[in-house]
UniProtKB/TrEMBL annotation:
PROSITE patterns assigned to the protein according to its UniProt record, in alphabetical order: RHODANESE_1, RHODANESE_3
Keyword Glycosyltransferase included in the entry's annotation: no
Gene Ontology MF: a single term: hydrolase activity
Biological processes, Gene Ontology terms: glutathione metabolic process; hydrogen sulfide metabolic process
Protein name, entry field: Putative metallo-hydrolase
Keywords: Hydrolase, Metal-binding
Source organism (scientific name): Rubripirellula lacrimiformis
Residues in the signal sequence: none
Claim: Metal-binding is one of the keywords in the record: yes
SUPFAM superfamilies per UniProt: Metallo-hydrolase/oxidoreductase, Rhodanese/Cell cycle control phosphatase
Length: 470
């Protein structure tokens, strides 16, 4: 029996796959994430032995789990592209048209450059219908409603990679039969492609009719579309590419993390290159937190935001809502390369406050109060920390745009003595931004829970930029 399991990693919207045959008992994993027990557990469930681990390309948005999975299993080899690749660790080379037999089906490699030079996709064919793929693992070349961006290796390669991507889409994918299913490397929310669709799979026929990346009659128009409209490259992507090319550390268990009593935690905060991350909700954080802590709430998307905002060599101290949450939070953080964990606050904020240690607060302003304050307090400055695309779609009247990702190293153009209120779509990113500002010496910073969602629900006035109106 043919087995296909799709593993969605929330927060980074990454998709990996287990594909196998219960007749031969052989299976492959495609693009595994760091916490690899999910694959061995699924293989055991289906009575399969994982013999092959395929990397479609050198990933930029998460730490690859290939080496960890191979080490854990002892039965699988890693297969890496041999096309313009710069892998620095051992793996079996794969070239275009290489075929791998799994009994009732086979996988055939196809060189599909554009997102990266070395990118491979893998066709699936039934044994009884060789040469007629019914599905393809498209990696980051073709997504649902989108395609892989060609600019992650820098502007100097964007032109040549966009040309290669055009050839991949138009000379390979569009020549497949309409019924062929695509299983991409990412879903909606990933920055590896623009506006990826919500569905986790699609067909060539559906994409042919609906995917805007597949509607350009010439290369020049296509290049202007994919490069000119590309969102900013997340800061941590080039760093994670280096990690994945060199060969990520083998992770057989989560990094050891010490439970620190309040006074020891306070002393650890004084060490150089230490960041304290408070993973509680924005309301709990606003009501009282350790001075200098950054609020990145315990939600799947914290993986991306920790990766986006902090260097990989940064030492992390963690504050969780409950001590039993620590392993789940660690898994989210490790996925984007952060494994240097100094410790966590034993007993959480209750132990900190019981020890009589200092507390800081960030006021939480409901949209109803914000709307009234904007009428009576013209000096109050509202900061929209959403992405440029969100800002262009409409914003609170009089707001300034300061995308949170640009606050990573320094916050430019703002007076630390002024009063600021930060908002985003829901308040999650605004709480990150307001906590960053507070930690960097801004004296009067507030957060808006509910943020844009609550503002529009209440029917308050919105403002659009001239470009959006045009």
């Amino acid at each position: 029996m043919f087995v296909l399991e799709t593993i969605l990693t929330d927060g980074i919207a990454q998709l990996s796959y287990l594909v196998g045959d219960t007749e031969s008992c052989r299976a492959a994993v495609i693009d595994p994430r760091t916490d690899v027990c999910v694959y061995s557990d699924l293989a055991r469930k289906h009575g399969l032995s994982i013999t092959h681990i395929f990397e479609t390309h050198i990933h930029a948005d998460f730490v690859s789990g290939s080496r960890s999975l191979a080490d854990r299993l002892g039965t699988a080899a890693i297969y890496l592209s041999d096309h313009d690749a710069n892998y620095e660790f051992d793996g079996k080379p794969v070239r275009d048209s290489d075929e791998f037999d799994f009994g009732s089906f086979s996988l055939t490699a196809r060189h599909t450059p554009g997102h990266t030079p070395e990118h491979l996709s893998y066709e699936i064919c039934e044994r009884k219908n060789p040469g007629s793929p019914f599905a393809v693992f498209s990696g980051d070349s073709l997504f649902v409603g989108s395609a892989g961006r060609p600019d992650l290796l820098g502007d100097d390669q964007a032109e040549s990679l966009s040309e290669a991507l055009y050839e991949t889409l138009y000379d390979y994918y569009l020549k497949l039969d309409d019924y062929v299913t695509i299983h991409p490397g990412h879903g909606a929310g990933s920055a590896c492609g623009a506006d990826i669709g919500d569905r986790l799979s699609s067909t060539i026929g559906y994409e042919r009719r609906t995917n805007s990346f597949l509607r350009f009659p010439d290369l020049q128009a296509f290049q202007e579309f994919v490069v000119g409209d590309a969102p900013p490259v997340p800061w941590h992507y080039p760093e994670l590419k280096k990690v994945n090319a060199a060969g990520p550390d083998i992770v057989n268990r989560l990094p050891t993390i010490a439970a620190l009593p309040p006074e020891d935690f306070r002393k650890a905060m004084l060490q150089p290159r230490v960041t304290t991350i408070d993973t509680r909700s924005m309301l709990a954080f606003g009501g009282g937190h350790v001075p200098g802590a950054i609020n990145i709430g315990d939600r799947p998307e914290m993986s991306a935001w920790v990766g986006q905002l902090f260097d990989l060599d940064q030492k992390l101290l963690l504050i969780v809502d409950d001590d039993t949450d620590i392993q789940r939070v660690q898994r989210l953080i490790v996925r984007t390369g952060h494994s240097n964990h100094l410790g966590y606050l034993a007993g959480g904020m209750r132990s900190w406050q019981d020890a009589g240690l200092p507390l800081d607060t960030i006021p939480q302003i409901p949209v109803q109060d914000l709307q009234k304050r904007l009428v009576h307090d013209p000096e109050l400055q509202v900061l929209d920390v959403r992405s440029p695309d969100e800002w262009m779609g409409g914003h609170i009247p009089g707001a300034q745009h300061h995308f949170i990702a640009d606050m990573r190293d320094r916050i430019r153009g703002l007076d630390k003595t002024h009063a600021y209120v930060a908002y985003c779509a829901s308040g999650y990113r605004a709480s990150i931004a307001s906590s960053l500002m507070k930690a960097r010496g801004f004296q009067d910073v507030s957060n808006v829970p509910g943020s844009w969602s609550a503002w529009t629900t209440m029917g308050y006035d919105i403002e659009q930029t001239v470009e959006a109106q045009a």
